[in-house]
Amino acid sequence: MEYVNPEGLRLDGRRPMEMRQIRAEIGSVAKADGSALFEMGNTKVIAAVYGPREVQNRSQQISDKALVRCEYSMANFSTGDRMRKPKGDRRSTEISLVIRQTMEACIMTHLMPRSQIDIFVQVLQADGGTRSACINAATLALADAGIPLRDLVTSCSAGYLNSTPLLDLNYVEDSAGGPDVTVGFLPKLDKVTLLQMDSKLSIDLFENVMQLAIEGCKAVANYIREILLENTKQLEYRRGL
Amino acid sequence: MREIQLSLNKTQKIRLQRALEKLESLSSKVNSHASVTIADSIPVSYEDGVLKGHGTLDFNGELVSTVCGVVERVNKLVYVRTLRAKYKPEVGDIIVGRVSEVAQKRWRLDINYSQDAVLMLSSMNLADGIQRRRTALDELNMRSIFEEDDVICAEVRGFQYDGLHLQARSQKYGKLQRGQLLTVPPYLMKRRKQHFHHLDQYGVDLILGCNGFIWVGEHVEARDDMVEDQEKKPELQNTKSQKNSMSLEDQERTYTPIETRQNICRIANAIRVLSTLGFNITAEVITETVNLSSSLNLDIHQMLGSEFCVLVAEGEAERRSLTKRKG
Amino acid sequence: MLHSKTFVKKTRGGKVNKQVREHYLRDDIYCGAPICKVCDSSAARLSPSASTILIVDTNVVLHQIDLLENPAIDDVVMLSIVLEEVKNKNMAVYNRVRALCSNSMRRFFVFANEHHKDTFVKEMNKESKNDRNDRAIRVAAQWYQNHLGGAARVLLITNDRENKRKAIEEGISAETIESYVKSLDQPNLLDLLVQPASEDVNMEEVEDLRPSKRKVIYAEHKPMSEITSGLHRGIYHQGKLRVNRYNPFEAYVGSESIGDEIIIYGRANMNRAFDGDIVAVELLPQDQWYEEKSLSIADEEDGEEDVHLVPNSADDAPRTTNVVQGSAGDAKIMSSRPSGFVVGIIKRNWHAYCGSLEPMPLPAGSGGTAHALFVSKDRRIPKIRIQTRQLENLLDKRIIVVVDSWDHLSRYPSGHYVRTIGEIGDRDTESEVVLIENDINSRPFSSQVLACLPSLPWSVSSEDLANPIRQDLRHLRVFSVDPPGCKDIDDALHCITLPNGNFEVGVHIADVTNFVLPGTPLDDEATQRGTSVYLVERRIDMLPKPLTEDICSLRADVERLAFSVIWEMTSEAEIISKRYTKSVIKSSAAMSYIEAQARMDDSRLMDPLTTDLRNMNTLAKIMRLKRIERGALTLASAEVKFQIDTETHDPLDIGMYQIREANQMVEEFMLAANVSVAEKILKHFPVISLLRRHPSPTREMLEPLLRTAAAVGLNLDVSSSKALADSLDHAVGDDPYFNKLIRILATRCMTQAVYFCSGDLSPQEYHHYGLAAPLYTHFTSPIRRYADVIVHRLLAASLEIQKLPSIFQDQPQLTSIADNLNYRHRNAQMASRASVELHTLIYFRKRPTDTEARIVKIRANGFIVFVPKYGIEGPVHLAPRSEKGSGEWFVDEQQQKIKKMDGSLSFSVLQTIRIHMEVVEPQPNRPKLQLTLI
């Protein structure tokens, strides 16, 4: 299958180094302490953050830092085939764990001892790169909830098909079975906090692909910053003196 | 960015846009550069020495924000005031909370903080008003004072090893009944001298809790009366059954009139609108909003419609520009 | 850069499924015309002076690809929608168009109209996909017209009347391909033009003046929907049609649903299917499963068996069916071979065919259009009707023709002429035909490929010597033994007696991977070529000549880089230790087999080199014995060797290839090296190793051998390779050649060994039957086989001295490389054989000969004989062909004998007879070798 044609265009008309259109919206869940919607092309993810709040199960309370929990689910209507069981399978458990660990690494949990932070992410529409979109949405939601973070975490994936590194794979490219590198990145600290790939790739190629994914993360970070700053300004001027 | 989630038609959209832009232009002169997001570095002059406050972090000698908010500087202290965040208690804050649990000699209250607050039995004025050691009997009767899910008004006493402590050693604190509890983002509340408001013309009490919980309820005439009342028949208060029968009678006697109920709703909706728009919530603004709605002859439910929302926004813009000019 | 997106819905499988895909429209797609001032012209492909820019529609590309490939057509804009449609319809044409678009000599530009913001069209309500695409083409044409303004004329080429009408209405200039070509005023281009179907009817009437006018000859193909449902219900069976190479009226369809091959007899049942087509077949009722036609040597119409080389494996040999047995009325065998007929063709495998025109009288008044029948060199292909304006030129030429269509009303498919190769019978022409037929790329290497070569003169540099991965073995007495005149020496040997009485034996293979780096154009080219091809008079190299003959070749007295396998062996040839290393060697002698043999045989010579040779020979003999004990087969082939006149390149003499001890010695060590390397790489890379396997022959495949053996009273045990090897050893007849003959017959029953990727099969299947080795690979000839290059890389990676190229991460791609290698390897062999056959013919053209031959197969009207001296095989007819062998001759199946009715004469299988060989020309320009009984 030809994923990049000789003219250098991918199936959906992007060039190899281009991301899909990204869009973010803060405060989409009124009830939550922080919430956000994040779209990467047709992948659409909503995240809600509750907390820090009293730990529901006392036995899980940690005396010197906050407990972070995460639940990932996919809406039944998120894929082409209607899903029967949108959460609780191995895949969602794994992604929940991945998101939790990634977010926990940057939340300053020691500032909120004996409390709990719940992150709920749900995929409204899946078109590849859900993992990345979830992390981006969760970051926005956490920032919206006013939870202190060491740095923003942004994520982006990159793959390698037809001997070309491709940024931000969509579903069709993702299901091609080639390597798919998902990177979680702290732009200010310039550190990688998440790195996943479940196929083989030679090390020098891998570095190229990873570097590409990191570039993607940086682009996402710039966008997220813009959105957050704009949001903060809005809140501030609306509130008045 | 946060969008106001209303279904607006085209003209309303434009009007709202214009009003918001006006607000922006009014505030932008103050401190538009002070807004930061996570991991933005905060410019400081190190020669003067810096005290790192909340929401900041030292990163390779650079002062970096860890939250989204506005940079505030008080002498050497530099901190970031967060906007949308959980309530941060300060001693003496008047708060409204909801009982989440009745425990050993204490109530736990949800006050929109990262942990539940503790109200010790001993920090309560007893019904009989006598200062004495709390007996086991008092402990057993705690539920007769506050039960789970009761709404309570109290004051922040301070932090102790086991969390945040409250006190309610005044007659103005205590259980709140016959009204509505509203929750708004705490950053919209300002600490003021007065948090208890009696809106005479509506016969309504308004308690603006610093934690973003707002109580709108039927006006209770001087609580001292209650104290007297309770002093007269202290024994009645002690048995639950009697109290219940009493309150049934009470209810019949003090049945809240429909006008008061409507007023409560009107005020509550005014607060909701303000909260949706993200405007600072003070008693004056609330009254103004209520007046606006009454002057327009709007039904209570119409207050939550998009048209009123736009009107409020325009009104607020007008008001602020006026105060600005005066100032 | 990102623009709006639209959504496309698709259905798939049985259920309706809404699929949403993003579709980005861009503003950075350029028109490709250098004259354009708006667009970035750095990637422009069209010529700056182009007065007319052509935009072609899908059908034009699909049908007129030969025309497009002609350099007269240039400055063409290929729309991406057209490419996509072509790709869906015909992958072969798509690849050709792609090649055109990437060819820097041609000015074809791909315009991604589907992603351009101005030329994207949305499907309208109730508009069919085709209409939408046609509209997209028109919109793109319009855009070009407006975009370029008056700078160039934009011409839409379409043969669709409706499309053309609409285009003209919309103000786009449009023309049909015919009128455009006519306007170019180049009559030879018209031959390349495919005639539209409507004219086809006229043409047939003109030519076919026979009374059987407009007769329906073939059954109509079933519509695709019916075929799909039929396949689903199990009425039809899908498979690839394989036409019998020796009998074009018989074909086989390997069907998975039946698990057996379905035989298809006759053109009517084949129903216009070509070799290689994917077809749907319906089974005939069981009582019709056997048909008379194939009994005798196929000669229904013009079928005939040619004299050809002795097959080397079952893959080359004529298909043996049980029909001969069937004639004895054995119902059980009949029912085991289902036969059927083609109801529809799922996928065509049409490509270009080499051949010549059937001789015909020149029509009066030359220059006009004439119709002619084309006969392909490949007998499996039916005659093809073509139309030409240059008949007199073409009659005695080898030409290339492609098929366009085959209507059920016409007996032959119709096609069109593509190009001329040369005169029939001319050696160069015929060699070229051999190459084209076997899909061998004999073009010179491109400049990009040559740029990858190290500069000449090349010598081992000090860096190479200093490289820690490279061991300096220059002090060893290394020598090579090869066929005389060999220039691409890729293996060398050494042998040292160790103080403890053991031997250190080293095999040094040219370190080709040091020069052929993965991912370079050189590597890509070598991957494609797969192997060097050895024809009688020339060699087509896999790698460019400087590498093949100089830099990599382990010539005497020069320092060369090598990859070495070094064993320590006891005097019983037990391997004690193995070592693999890259090295630098300096060969002390490059001997031919004859020289090496002479040295060993000359007992007076006692120099160290000769001692080494003798030691090695002793070891090799032991190793060979062990191998045979394990059950390796000693098979025989009847390879021939030509002596070629250096001036004229004509064959001077022909003789059997002689195998000496020295050959066997070298071969033995190469086998051992291959086995050692196979073990090593498989251990490190269990799923991505490239190995070579040889499947055990099935009993059915050995059937002809057993029958022949039984007829001469020989009992062969074929239960295992060991048993077969033993019984072959015991098959000693009354004459010395008998054993070899049996071995040759055994050889042709075997399939060929194949390359495979170890992850694709289970370890039991890795077995190499012929060598009786559990593992085998190719390591020793990297100069001429690409498989060895891959194995070199694997071995280097397993020694951790080099990184594994990224291609190895991709198992499917590795599998496809292995498939390509098998295909190329097979084609190379076919080409060599064809080349030998060609030269045999040239040789006998002037030399009618009487010689001795052996009967190998009995047929109804004669027998097939094998001529040991020349390694050829062919039919001897006892009766004139017209009489069909009926009457006086009688075949005894059991005894494999053919007798004259009166009993005066009888011939049995393996009998020696004398024949006369002569080249005859039954038709002008069609020489063939004829064998007749003396």
Automatic annotation (TrEMBL), chain A:
One of its GO terms (biological process) is nuclear RNA surveillance. It is found in: Cytoplasm; Nucleus, Nucleolus. Coiled coil: none annotated. One of its GO terms (cellular component) is cytoplasm. It comes from the Eukaryota. Pfam families: RNase_PH, RNase_PH_C. Keywords: Cytoplasm, Exosome. Residues 18-148, 151-216 form the Exoribonuclease phosphorolytic domain. Belongs to the RNase PH family. This is Exosome complex component RRP41 homolog. The lineage of its organism: Eukaryota, Viridiplantae, Streptophyta, Embryophyta, Tracheophyta.
From TrEMBL, chain B:
CDD domains: KH-I_Rrp4_eukar, S1_Rrp4. Residues 236-248 have a biased composition (Polar residues). InterPro entries: Exosome_RNA_bind1/RRP40/RRP4, KH_dom_type_1, KH_dom_type_1_sf, NA-bd_OB-fold, S1_domain, S1_RRP4. Transmembrane segments: none annotated. Its main location: nucleus. It is found in: Nucleus. Gene3D superfamilies: 2.40.50.100, Nucleic acid-binding proteins. One of its GO terms (molecular function) is RNA binding. GO terms for cellular component: cytoplasmic exosome (RNase complex); nuclear exosome (RNase complex). One of its GO terms (biological process) is nuclear-transcribed mRNA catabolic process. Residues 90-169 form the S1 motif domain. The keyword Membrane does not apply. Residues 226-235 have a biased composition (Basic and acidic residues). It holds the Pfam family S1_RRP4. Keywords: Exosome, Nucleus, RNA-binding, rRNA processing. It comes from the Eukaryota. Residues 226-253 are annotated as: Disordered. Belongs to the RRP4 family. This is Exosome complex component RRP4 homolog. The lineage of its organism: Eukaryota, Viridiplantae, Streptophyta, Embryophyta, Tracheophyta. The gene is LOC108994508.
Automatic annotation (TrEMBL), chain C:
The keyword RNA-binding applies. Its cofactor is Mg(2+). InterPro entries: Dis3_CSD2, NA-bd_OB-fold, PIN-like_dom_sf, PIN_dom, RNase_II/R, RNase_II/R_CS, RNR_Ribonuclease, Rrp44_CSD1. The keyword Nucleus applies. CDD domains: PIN_Rrp44-like (cd09862). Residues 52-165 form the PIN domain. Belongs to the RNR ribonuclease family. This is Exosome complex exonuclease RRP44 homolog A. It comes from Juglans regia.
